[in-house]
Amino acid sequence: MNSKPLINVHTHIFTSEDVPRYIAKGVFPFYWLLDLRKVIPIAKIYFKCKPFFHRLNRHRRNALSAIRSRWFLHILYTAGLVWLSLNALYFLVDYAKWDFSAYLPDWAVFDLAERMLKKYLLLEQASAVLRTAMIATAYAMFKPLRQLMWKFLVMIFQPLRSIPRDQIAHFWHRYKNIIRFATYKNQAGVFDRLHKMYPPLSKMVVLPMDMEFMGAGAPQRSYLQQLEDLHGLAIGKTRRDVLVPFLFVDPRRIRHDRKIKTSNPFFDWEVQNGKVCLKPCLVKKYLEDDNGGRGVFKGIKIYPALGYYPFDEDLLPLWLYCQDHEIPITTHCIMGSIYSRARLHRKQLHHPYLTKNGKSLRLRHITRYEAQRNFTQPLNYALLLEPRHLHQWLSRCRTEIADLFYSEGGQRRDLSGLKINLAHYGGPSEWAKYLEQDRLEPSQELIEMPNIGVSFRYKQVDAAKNNPTLFYNERLADLWQSGVDWFSLINSLMMQYPNVYADISYTLHDPVIKPLLSRNMQHPRLRRRILFGTDYYVVRQHDTEKGLFLRLLEGLDKDDIELLIRQNPTEFLSI
Fold first, then answer.
1. pLDDT digit string, tens, across residues 354-387
2. In-domain check, residue 31
Protein backbone atom coordinates (compact mmCIF):
# COMPACT_ATOMS: atom_id res chain seq x y z
CA MET A 1 0.00 0.00 0.00
CA ASN A 2 1.32 3.48 -0.95
CA SER A 3 2.43 5.46 2.11
CA LYS A 4 1.73 8.83 0.48
CA PRO A 5 -1.92 10.01 0.37
CA LEU A 6 -3.73 11.14 -2.75
CA ILE A 7 -3.60 14.97 -2.91
CA ASN A 8 -5.89 17.24 -4.90
CA VAL A 9 -3.94 20.53 -5.03
CA HIS A 10 -6.76 22.74 -6.32
CA THR A 11 -10.24 22.85 -4.75
CA HIS A 12 -12.66 25.55 -3.59
CA ILE A 13 -15.25 25.37 -0.83
CA PHE A 14 -16.17 29.05 -0.42
CA THR A 15 -19.91 29.70 -0.35
CA SER A 16 -22.16 32.23 -2.03
CA GLU A 17 -21.67 34.51 1.00
CA ASP A 18 -18.06 35.02 -0.13
CA VAL A 19 -18.98 36.12 -3.67
CA PRO A 20 -19.67 39.80 -4.60
CA ARG A 21 -23.34 40.51 -5.06
CA TYR A 22 -22.85 41.98 -8.56
CA ILE A 23 -20.69 39.18 -9.94
CA ALA A 24 -22.59 39.50 -13.24
CA LYS A 25 -21.33 43.08 -13.71
CA GLY A 26 -19.48 43.49 -16.98
CA VAL A 27 -21.02 40.33 -18.44
CA PHE A 28 -24.75 41.13 -18.58
CA PRO A 29 -26.08 44.64 -19.33
CA PHE A 30 -28.71 44.39 -16.58
CA TYR A 31 -26.39 42.79 -14.03
CA TRP A 32 -28.37 44.17 -11.09
CA LEU A 33 -31.14 41.70 -11.97
CA LEU A 34 -28.72 38.91 -11.00
CA ASP A 35 -27.89 40.40 -7.61
CA LEU A 36 -26.87 37.38 -5.52
CA ARG A 37 -28.54 38.73 -2.40
CA LYS A 38 -31.86 38.64 -4.23
CA VAL A 39 -31.35 35.53 -6.34
CA ILE A 40 -30.05 33.18 -3.64
CA PRO A 41 -33.15 33.34 -1.37
CA ILE A 42 -35.26 32.45 -4.41
CA ALA A 43 -32.82 29.65 -5.29
CA LYS A 44 -33.05 28.20 -1.79
CA ILE A 45 -36.84 28.08 -2.06
CA TYR A 46 -36.48 26.37 -5.42
CA PHE A 47 -34.12 23.71 -4.02
CA LYS A 48 -36.55 23.04 -1.16
CA CYS A 49 -39.36 22.59 -3.66
CA LYS A 50 -37.21 20.58 -6.07
CA PRO A 51 -38.89 17.21 -5.24
CA PHE A 52 -42.23 18.75 -6.16
CA PHE A 53 -40.83 20.03 -9.47
CA HIS A 54 -39.39 16.58 -10.20
CA ARG A 55 -42.84 15.01 -9.71
CA LEU A 56 -44.41 17.73 -11.83
CA ASN A 57 -41.86 17.14 -14.59
CA ARG A 58 -42.52 13.39 -14.46
CA HIS A 59 -46.25 14.01 -14.90
CA ARG A 60 -45.46 16.38 -17.78
CA ARG A 61 -43.39 13.75 -19.57
CA ASN A 62 -46.14 11.16 -19.08
CA ALA A 63 -48.72 13.57 -20.48
CA LEU A 64 -46.53 14.39 -23.50
CA SER A 65 -46.03 10.70 -24.15
CA ALA A 66 -49.80 10.15 -24.09
CA ILE A 67 -50.39 13.12 -26.41
CA ARG A 68 -47.76 12.03 -28.95
CA SER A 69 -49.19 8.53 -29.09
CA ARG A 70 -52.48 9.96 -30.51
CA TRP A 71 -52.05 11.76 -33.80
CA PHE A 72 -54.96 14.18 -33.40
CA LEU A 73 -53.80 15.26 -29.91
CA HIS A 74 -50.26 15.64 -31.25
CA ILE A 75 -51.51 17.98 -33.98
CA LEU A 76 -53.46 20.08 -31.46
CA TYR A 77 -50.48 20.21 -29.09
CA THR A 78 -48.10 21.29 -31.86
CA ALA A 79 -50.53 23.95 -33.07
CA GLY A 80 -50.92 25.29 -29.53
CA LEU A 81 -47.16 25.41 -29.02
CA VAL A 82 -46.66 27.29 -32.30
CA TRP A 83 -49.41 29.77 -31.33
CA LEU A 84 -47.84 30.30 -27.92
CA SER A 85 -44.38 30.80 -29.43
CA LEU A 86 -45.63 33.31 -32.02
CA ASN A 87 -47.32 35.34 -29.28
CA ALA A 88 -44.19 35.23 -27.12
CA LEU A 89 -42.05 36.56 -29.97
CA TYR A 90 -44.65 39.21 -30.77
CA PHE A 91 -44.69 40.39 -27.14
CA LEU A 92 -40.89 40.62 -27.06
CA VAL A 93 -40.80 42.66 -30.25
CA ASP A 94 -43.60 44.87 -28.99
CA TYR A 95 -41.82 45.48 -25.68
CA ALA A 96 -38.61 46.45 -27.47
CA LYS A 97 -40.38 48.64 -30.04
CA TRP A 98 -38.08 47.06 -32.59
CA ASP A 99 -38.23 48.24 -36.19
CA PHE A 100 -38.04 45.24 -38.53
CA SER A 101 -37.85 47.35 -41.66
CA ALA A 102 -34.05 47.54 -41.53
CA TYR A 103 -33.76 43.76 -41.60
CA LEU A 104 -36.77 42.23 -43.39
CA PRO A 105 -39.10 43.34 -46.21
CA ASP A 106 -42.54 44.68 -45.27
CA TRP A 107 -44.50 41.82 -46.79
CA ALA A 108 -42.56 39.28 -44.71
CA VAL A 109 -43.47 40.78 -41.35
CA PHE A 110 -45.92 43.63 -41.16
CA ASP A 111 -48.58 42.21 -43.47
CA LEU A 112 -48.30 38.82 -41.82
CA ALA A 113 -48.60 40.31 -38.33
CA GLU A 114 -51.59 42.40 -39.37
CA ARG A 115 -53.37 39.40 -40.83
CA MET A 116 -52.71 37.36 -37.71
CA LEU A 117 -54.07 40.15 -35.50
CA LYS A 118 -57.25 40.25 -37.55
CA LYS A 119 -57.64 36.50 -37.13
CA TYR A 120 -57.16 36.84 -33.37
CA LEU A 121 -54.06 34.67 -33.47
CA LEU A 122 -52.00 37.35 -31.70
CA LEU A 123 -53.30 38.65 -28.36
CA GLU A 124 -52.56 42.33 -28.91
CA GLN A 125 -54.58 43.48 -25.87
CA ALA A 126 -53.14 40.92 -23.44
CA SER A 127 -52.17 42.31 -20.03
CA ALA A 128 -48.54 42.54 -18.89
CA VAL A 129 -49.05 39.64 -16.48
CA LEU A 130 -50.49 37.39 -19.19
CA ARG A 131 -47.73 38.38 -21.61
CA THR A 132 -45.01 37.56 -19.09
CA ALA A 133 -46.62 34.21 -18.25
CA MET A 134 -46.91 33.27 -21.93
CA ILE A 135 -43.28 34.23 -22.64
CA ALA A 136 -42.06 32.19 -19.67
CA THR A 137 -44.19 29.18 -20.62
CA ALA A 138 -43.06 29.24 -24.23
CA TYR A 139 -39.43 29.61 -23.15
CA ALA A 140 -39.68 26.61 -20.83
CA MET A 141 -41.54 24.34 -23.25
CA PHE A 142 -39.83 24.97 -26.59
CA LYS A 143 -36.03 24.66 -26.82
CA PRO A 144 -35.65 26.15 -30.34
CA LEU A 145 -37.57 29.18 -29.10
CA ARG A 146 -34.95 29.76 -26.40
CA GLN A 147 -32.24 30.01 -29.04
CA LEU A 148 -34.39 32.29 -31.18
CA MET A 149 -35.17 34.52 -28.19
CA TRP A 150 -31.47 34.92 -27.49
CA LYS A 151 -30.90 36.03 -31.10
CA PHE A 152 -33.68 38.58 -30.70
CA LEU A 153 -32.14 39.87 -27.49
CA VAL A 154 -28.73 40.22 -29.13
CA MET A 155 -30.28 42.17 -32.01
CA ILE A 156 -32.36 44.37 -29.71
CA PHE A 157 -29.84 45.14 -26.96
CA GLN A 158 -26.64 46.54 -28.46
CA PRO A 159 -24.35 45.78 -25.46
CA LEU A 160 -24.94 42.05 -25.89
CA ARG A 161 -23.37 42.11 -29.35
CA SER A 162 -19.91 42.94 -27.99
CA ILE A 163 -19.89 39.97 -25.57
CA PRO A 164 -18.79 36.62 -27.04
CA ARG A 165 -21.34 33.87 -26.55
CA ASP A 166 -18.74 31.50 -25.12
CA GLN A 167 -17.85 34.13 -22.50
CA ILE A 168 -21.50 34.43 -21.44
CA ALA A 169 -21.95 30.65 -21.41
CA HIS A 170 -18.81 30.20 -19.31
CA PHE A 171 -19.94 32.83 -16.81
CA TRP A 172 -23.49 31.46 -16.69
CA HIS A 173 -22.24 27.98 -15.80
CA ARG A 174 -20.04 29.48 -13.06
CA TYR A 175 -22.97 31.55 -11.77
CA LYS A 176 -25.21 28.46 -11.65
CA ASN A 177 -22.57 26.57 -9.68
CA ILE A 178 -22.49 29.36 -7.10
CA ILE A 179 -26.27 29.20 -6.84
CA ARG A 180 -26.26 25.39 -6.69
CA PHE A 181 -23.92 25.41 -3.68
CA ALA A 182 -25.83 28.21 -1.98
CA THR A 183 -27.82 25.62 -0.04
CA TYR A 184 -24.73 24.85 2.04
CA LYS A 185 -24.72 27.06 5.12
CA ASN A 186 -20.95 26.86 5.58
CA GLN A 187 -17.72 25.62 4.01
CA ALA A 188 -17.79 22.42 6.09
CA GLY A 189 -20.74 21.02 4.12
CA VAL A 190 -19.05 21.69 0.77
CA PHE A 191 -15.77 20.14 1.93
CA ASP A 192 -17.41 17.02 3.34
CA ARG A 193 -19.25 16.45 0.07
CA LEU A 194 -15.94 16.78 -1.81
CA HIS A 195 -13.91 14.52 0.46
CA LYS A 196 -16.45 11.68 0.35
CA MET A 197 -15.72 11.29 -3.37
CA TYR A 198 -12.11 10.28 -2.67
CA PRO A 199 -10.39 7.43 -0.82
CA PRO A 200 -10.06 7.88 2.96
CA LEU A 201 -7.13 10.04 4.15
CA SER A 202 -6.91 11.84 0.78
CA LYS A 203 -5.81 15.44 1.22
CA MET A 204 -7.56 18.43 -0.34
CA VAL A 205 -5.79 21.77 -0.83
CA VAL A 206 -8.49 24.38 -0.24
CA LEU A 207 -8.04 27.77 -1.92
CA PRO A 208 -10.14 30.64 -0.49
CA MET A 209 -11.04 33.70 -2.55
CA ASP A 210 -10.78 37.39 -1.61
CA MET A 211 -13.09 39.18 -4.06
CA GLU A 212 -13.68 42.38 -2.09
CA PHE A 213 -11.43 44.43 -4.41
CA MET A 214 -12.70 43.21 -7.78
CA GLY A 215 -15.19 46.05 -8.23
CA ALA A 216 -18.39 43.98 -8.16
CA GLY A 217 -19.82 45.02 -4.80
CA ALA A 218 -19.21 43.65 -1.35
CA PRO A 219 -19.73 39.97 -0.46
CA GLN A 220 -22.23 39.16 2.26
CA ARG A 221 -19.40 38.29 4.64
CA SER A 222 -15.85 39.62 4.68
CA TYR A 223 -12.78 37.72 3.54
CA LEU A 224 -11.42 37.76 7.09
CA GLN A 225 -14.54 35.91 8.27
CA GLN A 226 -14.07 33.36 5.48
CA LEU A 227 -10.47 32.82 6.65
CA GLU A 228 -11.46 32.38 10.28
CA ASP A 229 -14.10 29.84 9.29
CA LEU A 230 -11.57 27.93 7.17
CA HIS A 231 -9.05 28.04 10.02
CA GLY A 232 -11.62 26.49 12.35
CA LEU A 233 -12.23 23.63 9.89
CA ALA A 234 -8.52 22.98 9.45
CA ILE A 235 -7.82 22.57 13.18
CA GLY A 236 -10.90 20.44 13.87
CA LYS A 237 -10.36 16.79 14.76
CA THR A 238 -12.33 15.36 11.84
CA ARG A 239 -10.65 17.40 9.09
CA ARG A 240 -7.23 18.24 10.56
CA ASP A 241 -5.33 15.61 8.56
CA VAL A 242 -7.17 15.95 5.26
CA LEU A 243 -7.82 19.70 4.77
CA VAL A 244 -4.79 21.72 3.61
CA PRO A 245 -5.73 25.43 3.52
CA PHE A 246 -3.91 28.15 1.57
CA LEU A 247 -3.98 31.87 2.38
CA PHE A 248 -5.30 34.20 -0.33
CA VAL A 249 -3.25 37.41 -0.64
CA ASP A 250 -4.22 40.57 -2.53
CA PRO A 251 -1.66 43.44 -2.55
CA ARG A 252 -4.49 45.98 -2.50
CA ARG A 253 -5.55 44.70 0.91
CA ILE A 254 -1.96 45.21 2.09
CA ARG A 255 -1.98 48.80 0.81
CA HIS A 256 -5.42 49.45 2.27
CA ASP A 257 -4.29 48.37 5.75
CA ARG A 258 -1.12 50.46 5.44
CA LYS A 259 -3.16 53.50 4.41
CA ILE A 260 -5.59 53.32 7.33
CA LYS A 261 -2.78 52.29 9.72
CA THR A 262 -4.75 49.49 11.31
CA SER A 263 -3.43 47.95 14.53
CA ASN A 264 -3.91 44.41 13.16
CA PRO A 265 -2.67 44.57 9.54
CA PHE A 266 -3.06 41.74 7.09
CA PHE A 267 0.66 41.67 6.24
CA ASP A 268 3.58 43.35 8.00
CA TRP A 269 7.28 42.53 7.93
CA GLU A 270 10.76 43.50 9.06
CA VAL A 271 14.34 42.49 8.28
CA GLN A 272 16.32 40.43 10.79
CA ASN A 273 19.79 39.12 9.97
CA GLY A 274 19.26 39.90 6.31
CA LYS A 275 16.01 37.92 6.05
CA VAL A 276 12.34 38.89 5.89
CA CYS A 277 10.54 38.11 9.16
CA LEU A 278 6.86 38.52 9.87
CA LYS A 279 5.72 41.05 12.40
CA PRO A 280 2.41 40.44 14.25
CA CYS A 281 -0.19 40.31 11.45
CA LEU A 282 -2.79 37.96 10.00
CA VAL A 283 -0.32 36.37 7.59
CA LYS A 284 1.91 35.46 10.55
CA LYS A 285 -1.10 34.12 12.47
CA TYR A 286 -2.01 31.68 9.72
CA LEU A 287 1.41 30.76 8.26
CA GLU A 288 3.41 30.31 11.48
CA ASP A 289 2.81 28.44 14.70
CA ASP A 290 3.80 29.70 18.15
CA ASN A 291 7.36 28.41 17.70
CA GLY A 292 7.91 30.00 14.28
CA GLY A 293 7.35 26.75 12.37
CA ARG A 294 4.76 25.99 9.66
CA GLY A 295 1.31 27.08 10.73
CA VAL A 296 -2.14 25.77 9.90
CA PHE A 297 -2.16 27.37 6.42
CA LYS A 298 0.41 25.67 4.20
CA GLY A 299 0.68 28.01 1.23
CA ILE A 300 -0.29 31.23 -0.56
CA LYS A 301 -2.93 31.75 -3.27
CA ILE A 302 -3.00 34.75 -5.61
CA TYR A 303 -5.44 35.61 -8.39
CA PRO A 304 -3.90 38.30 -10.65
CA ALA A 305 -6.98 38.37 -12.93
CA LEU A 306 -8.66 40.44 -10.21
CA GLY A 307 -6.52 43.38 -11.27
CA TYR A 308 -2.85 43.23 -10.24
CA TYR A 309 0.48 41.79 -11.36
CA PRO A 310 2.26 38.94 -9.51
CA PHE A 311 5.40 41.09 -9.29
CA ASP A 312 3.57 43.88 -7.41
CA GLU A 313 6.16 45.47 -5.12
CA ASP A 314 4.00 44.89 -2.03
CA LEU A 315 4.15 41.15 -2.75
CA LEU A 316 7.93 40.95 -3.13
CA PRO A 317 8.75 40.81 0.62
CA LEU A 318 6.25 37.96 0.98
CA TRP A 319 7.83 36.11 -1.96
CA LEU A 320 11.24 36.35 -0.31
CA TYR A 321 9.76 35.00 2.91
CA CYS A 322 8.06 32.14 1.04
CA GLN A 323 11.27 31.24 -0.79
CA ASP A 324 13.28 31.15 2.44
CA HIS A 325 10.69 28.92 4.16
CA GLU A 326 9.76 26.77 1.11
CA ILE A 327 6.15 27.91 1.26
CA PRO A 328 4.31 27.02 -1.98
CA ILE A 329 2.35 29.57 -4.00
CA THR A 330 -0.58 28.78 -6.29
CA THR A 331 -1.49 31.39 -8.87
CA HIS A 332 -4.36 31.61 -11.34
CA CYS A 333 -3.10 31.17 -14.93
CA ILE A 334 -6.07 30.90 -17.30
CA MET A 335 -8.68 33.14 -18.93
CA GLY A 336 -11.83 32.77 -16.82
CA SER A 337 -15.11 34.35 -15.78
CA ILE A 338 -13.83 35.75 -12.46
CA TYR A 339 -11.87 38.91 -13.24
CA SER A 340 -11.78 42.55 -12.21
CA ARG A 341 -15.02 44.43 -12.88
CA ALA A 342 -13.42 47.79 -12.04
CA ARG A 343 -13.06 50.46 -14.69
CA LEU A 344 -9.75 50.28 -16.55
CA HIS A 345 -7.36 53.17 -15.95
CA ARG A 346 -5.24 54.71 -18.68
CA LYS A 347 -2.03 53.48 -17.05
CA GLN A 348 -3.28 49.90 -17.40
CA LEU A 349 -2.98 50.20 -21.17
CA HIS A 350 0.81 49.85 -20.77
CA HIS A 351 2.83 47.13 -19.07
CA PRO A 352 4.56 48.45 -15.91
CA TYR A 353 7.87 46.75 -16.77
CA LEU A 354 8.14 45.64 -20.39
CA THR A 355 9.56 48.09 -22.92
CA LYS A 356 9.92 48.11 -26.68
CA ASN A 357 12.26 50.53 -28.46
CA GLY A 358 12.70 52.51 -25.26
CA LYS A 359 8.95 52.93 -24.62
CA SER A 360 6.64 51.03 -22.30
CA LEU A 361 4.88 48.18 -24.08
CA ARG A 362 1.33 49.08 -25.08
CA LEU A 363 -1.15 46.31 -24.29
CA ARG A 364 -3.70 45.34 -26.92
CA HIS A 365 -6.43 44.04 -24.61
CA ILE A 366 -8.54 46.98 -23.52
CA THR A 367 -11.86 45.51 -22.31
CA ARG A 368 -12.16 44.31 -18.73
CA TYR A 369 -12.55 40.71 -19.82
CA GLU A 370 -9.53 40.87 -22.13
CA ALA A 371 -7.42 42.82 -19.61
CA GLN A 372 -7.17 39.77 -17.36
CA ARG A 373 -4.86 38.25 -19.98
CA ASN A 374 -2.30 40.95 -19.20
CA PHE A 375 -2.34 40.16 -15.47
CA THR A 376 -2.29 36.37 -15.82
CA GLN A 377 0.30 36.10 -18.64
CA PRO A 378 2.97 33.47 -17.78
CA LEU A 379 5.64 35.95 -18.94
CA ASN A 380 4.96 37.93 -15.76
CA TYR A 381 6.44 35.02 -13.81
CA ALA A 382 9.53 35.00 -16.01
CA LEU A 383 10.06 38.54 -14.74
CA LEU A 384 9.88 37.25 -11.15
CA LEU A 385 12.07 34.18 -11.65
CA GLU A 386 14.73 35.49 -14.04
CA PRO A 387 17.25 37.46 -11.89
CA ARG A 388 18.22 40.03 -14.54
CA HIS A 389 14.60 40.97 -15.23
CA LEU A 390 13.76 41.08 -11.52
CA HIS A 391 16.68 43.36 -10.69
CA GLN A 392 15.71 45.77 -13.45
CA TRP A 393 12.18 45.85 -12.02
CA LEU A 394 13.53 46.46 -8.50
CA SER A 395 15.19 49.64 -9.73
CA ARG A 396 11.67 51.06 -10.17
CA CYS A 397 10.38 49.90 -6.76
CA ARG A 398 10.56 51.64 -3.39
CA THR A 399 14.02 51.75 -1.84
CA GLU A 400 13.01 49.63 1.14
CA ILE A 401 11.80 46.89 -1.25
CA ALA A 402 14.89 46.99 -3.48
CA ASP A 403 17.22 46.85 -0.45
CA LEU A 404 15.69 43.50 0.59
CA PHE A 405 17.43 41.83 -2.32
CA TYR A 406 20.93 42.77 -1.19
CA SER A 407 22.65 40.51 1.36
CA GLU A 408 25.08 41.79 3.97
CA GLY A 409 28.00 40.92 1.70
CA GLY A 410 26.61 43.05 -1.10
CA GLN A 411 25.42 40.06 -3.14
CA ARG A 412 22.15 40.32 -4.98
CA ARG A 413 19.36 37.94 -4.06
CA ASP A 414 16.68 36.76 -6.47
CA LEU A 415 13.49 34.68 -6.61
CA SER A 416 14.64 31.97 -9.00
CA GLY A 417 13.96 29.32 -6.35
CA LEU A 418 10.38 30.43 -5.67
CA LYS A 419 8.03 27.45 -5.38
CA ILE A 420 5.04 28.34 -7.54
CA ASN A 421 2.18 26.47 -9.20
CA LEU A 422 0.80 28.00 -12.41
CA ALA A 423 -2.70 26.69 -11.86
CA HIS A 424 -4.82 25.41 -14.75
CA TYR A 425 -1.69 25.05 -16.94
CA GLY A 426 -2.88 27.93 -19.14
CA GLY A 427 -6.21 26.30 -19.98
CA PRO A 428 -7.35 23.97 -22.79
CA SER A 429 -7.60 26.82 -25.32
CA GLU A 430 -3.86 27.51 -24.94
CA TRP A 431 -3.07 23.80 -25.35
CA ALA A 432 -5.09 23.81 -28.57
CA LYS A 433 -3.31 27.01 -29.64
CA TYR A 434 0.04 25.26 -29.25
CA LEU A 435 -1.11 22.57 -31.69
CA GLU A 436 -2.23 25.21 -34.18
CA GLN A 437 0.88 27.44 -34.04
CA ASP A 438 3.11 25.32 -36.26
CA ARG A 439 4.76 28.33 -37.92
CA LEU A 440 5.40 30.62 -34.92
CA GLU A 441 9.10 30.47 -34.07
CA PRO A 442 8.86 30.73 -30.23
CA SER A 443 6.40 27.82 -30.14
CA GLN A 444 8.90 25.71 -32.11
CA GLU A 445 11.62 26.32 -29.50
CA LEU A 446 9.84 23.83 -27.25
CA ILE A 447 10.65 21.18 -29.87
CA GLU A 448 14.04 22.50 -30.98
CA MET A 449 15.36 22.78 -27.41
CA PRO A 450 13.40 20.09 -25.49
CA ASN A 451 15.32 20.62 -22.24
CA ILE A 452 15.03 24.43 -22.18
CA GLY A 453 12.11 25.49 -24.35
CA VAL A 454 11.45 29.17 -24.97
CA SER A 455 14.33 31.38 -23.86
CA PHE A 456 13.44 34.33 -21.61
CA ARG A 457 16.93 35.85 -21.93
CA TYR A 458 18.02 35.66 -25.55
CA LYS A 459 16.95 36.86 -28.95
CA GLN A 460 15.45 34.20 -31.17
CA VAL A 461 18.13 34.89 -33.79
CA ASP A 462 20.94 34.48 -31.27
CA ALA A 463 22.95 31.40 -32.19
CA ALA A 464 24.72 31.28 -28.82
CA LYS A 465 21.65 30.61 -26.67
CA ASN A 466 23.71 28.55 -24.23
CA ASN A 467 26.01 31.47 -23.39
CA PRO A 468 24.89 32.57 -19.88
CA THR A 469 26.50 36.01 -20.22
CA LEU A 470 24.15 37.15 -22.97
CA PHE A 471 20.99 39.01 -22.04
CA TYR A 472 18.37 40.83 -24.08
CA ASN A 473 16.27 43.40 -22.21
CA GLU A 474 13.35 43.37 -24.63
CA ARG A 475 13.08 39.59 -24.96
CA LEU A 476 9.91 39.36 -22.84
CA ALA A 477 8.32 42.17 -24.85
CA ASP A 478 9.09 40.33 -28.11
CA LEU A 479 7.49 37.16 -26.77
CA TRP A 480 4.47 39.13 -25.53
CA GLN A 481 3.90 40.72 -28.93
CA SER A 482 4.41 37.46 -30.81
CA GLY A 483 1.41 35.89 -29.05
CA VAL A 484 3.21 32.67 -28.19
CA ASP A 485 0.91 30.12 -26.57
CA TRP A 486 0.91 29.74 -22.78
CA PHE A 487 1.46 25.99 -23.00
CA SER A 488 4.95 26.59 -24.43
CA LEU A 489 5.71 29.33 -21.90
CA ILE A 490 4.62 27.33 -18.85
CA ASN A 491 6.56 24.25 -19.96
CA SER A 492 9.63 26.43 -20.47
CA LEU A 493 9.29 27.94 -16.99
CA MET A 494 9.06 24.46 -15.47
CA MET A 495 12.18 23.31 -17.32
CA GLN A 496 14.33 26.36 -16.59
CA TYR A 497 13.52 27.05 -12.93
CA PRO A 498 13.80 24.42 -10.18
CA ASN A 499 10.49 24.90 -8.33
CA VAL A 500 7.90 25.80 -10.96
CA TYR A 501 4.87 23.49 -11.17
CA ALA A 502 1.55 23.46 -13.02
CA ASP A 503 -1.70 21.75 -12.06
CA ILE A 504 -4.23 20.43 -14.55
CA SER A 505 -7.31 21.66 -12.70
CA TYR A 506 -10.20 22.73 -14.98
CA THR A 507 -8.03 21.89 -18.01
CA LEU A 508 -8.47 18.21 -17.16
CA HIS A 509 -12.07 18.14 -18.44
CA ASP A 510 -11.05 18.81 -22.06
CA PRO A 511 -10.05 15.73 -24.13
CA VAL A 512 -7.59 17.85 -26.16
CA ILE A 513 -5.10 17.67 -23.30
CA LYS A 514 -4.72 13.89 -23.14
CA PRO A 515 -2.16 13.46 -25.99
CA LEU A 516 -0.09 16.44 -24.80
CA LEU A 517 -0.35 15.38 -21.15
CA SER A 518 0.85 11.88 -22.06
CA ARG A 519 3.77 13.39 -23.99
CA ASN A 520 4.72 15.68 -21.10
CA MET A 521 4.66 12.73 -18.71
CA GLN A 522 7.46 11.19 -20.82
CA HIS A 523 9.69 14.27 -20.35
CA PRO A 524 12.24 13.62 -17.56
CA ARG A 525 11.79 17.07 -15.99
CA LEU A 526 8.17 18.00 -16.75
CA ARG A 527 6.82 14.72 -15.38
CA ARG A 528 8.06 15.75 -11.93
CA ARG A 529 6.28 19.13 -12.06
CA ILE A 530 2.70 18.34 -13.08
CA LEU A 531 0.10 18.26 -10.29
CA PHE A 532 -3.35 16.73 -9.97
CA GLY A 533 -6.17 19.17 -9.29
CA THR A 534 -9.83 19.46 -10.28
CA ASP A 535 -10.92 23.03 -9.44
CA TYR A 536 -13.90 21.69 -7.49
CA TYR A 537 -16.60 22.92 -7.43
CA VAL A 538 -16.10 25.31 -10.34
CA VAL A 539 -15.46 22.60 -12.94
CA ARG A 540 -18.72 20.86 -12.00
CA GLN A 541 -20.24 22.58 -15.03
CA HIS A 542 -18.25 20.23 -17.32
CA ASP A 543 -17.92 16.96 -15.45
CA THR A 544 -18.40 15.35 -12.05
CA GLU A 545 -15.52 15.02 -9.61
CA LYS A 546 -15.58 11.25 -10.05
CA GLY A 547 -15.65 11.61 -13.82
CA LEU A 548 -12.60 13.90 -13.82
CA PHE A 549 -10.62 11.47 -11.70
CA LEU A 550 -11.50 8.51 -13.92
CA ARG A 551 -10.65 10.57 -17.01
CA LEU A 552 -7.19 11.17 -15.56
CA LEU A 553 -6.60 7.47 -14.88
CA GLU A 554 -7.49 6.52 -18.44
CA GLY A 555 -4.48 6.27 -20.72
CA LEU A 556 -1.73 6.86 -18.12
CA ASP A 557 0.42 4.12 -16.67
CA LYS A 558 0.67 3.43 -12.95
CA ASP A 559 3.96 5.30 -12.43
CA ASP A 560 2.62 8.46 -14.11
CA ILE A 561 -0.53 8.39 -11.99
CA GLU A 562 1.51 7.98 -8.80
CA LEU A 563 3.58 11.03 -9.73
CA LEU A 564 0.52 13.16 -10.53
CA ILE A 565 -1.64 12.37 -7.52
CA ARG A 566 0.90 11.56 -4.79
CA GLN A 567 4.61 12.28 -5.23
CA ASN A 568 4.55 15.61 -7.08
CA PRO A 569 1.88 17.20 -4.82
CA THR A 570 3.78 16.02 -1.72
CA GLU A 571 6.99 17.66 -2.94
CA PHE A 572 5.17 20.84 -3.92
CA LEU A 573 3.54 21.19 -0.50
CA SER A 574 6.74 20.24 1.37
CA ILE A 575 4.77 17.96 3.69
1. 998 889 999 877 788 889 999 999 999 999 999 9
2. no
